[in-house]
Design goal:
Helix content is about 45%, strand content about 30%. The chain has about 130 residues and is of the alpha+beta class. The chain has a five-stranded antiparallel β-sheet with strand order 2-3-1-4-5. The longest helix has 22 residues. The relative contact order is 0.25.
Length: about 130
């Protein structure tokens, strides 16, 4: 078996997750999915591009994103959170799509367009304990 070419590099990792996504899907799958898609199209994807981030993969209700700059990752996350809060202002509390985000800078492994390692794991754990919005 041939060894795969695994690259090690320093990167900034952003992990996002929708708060109470399972509950929202249980209540109204179509509306929840549509709301998530609208956030991605109107806010999240363009903002990530604006701050030179690269979406590595979608995690269902979340994203794994890589940046080269810590300040751009933080500015991106703040801009997304502020825009989502503003967009949610007129939405009933039970229907609001809210996000938790974790950011970590560290060494990662890059293989076949995906990223792995403690740099990713720490960002995911920070996202789990982060406050929404």
């Amino acid at each position: 078996m041939k060894e795969k070419n695994v690259e090690r590099r320093l990167a900034v990792v952003l992990v996002t997750d929708v708060v109470c996504f399972s509950r929202m899907m249980g209540a109204d799958e179509e509306a929840t999915l549509l709301g998530l898609q609208k956030h991605r199209f109107a806010i999240i994807d363009p903002t990530i591009g604006q701050f030179r981030g690269r979406i590595i993969k979608s995690l269902g209700d979340g994203l794994l994103v890589m940046f080269e700059s810590a300040s751009e990752a933080v500015e991106c996350a703040l801009k997304i959170q502020r825009a989502v809060v503003q967009r949610n202002a007129d939405v009933p509390e039970t229907k609001r799509i809210r996000y938790r985000m974790g950011i970590n800078m560290g060494e990662i492994l890059v293989e076949d367009g995906d990223i792995f390692g403690d740099g990713v794991n720490i960002a995911a754990r920070l996202q789990e304990v982060a406050d929404p919005d």
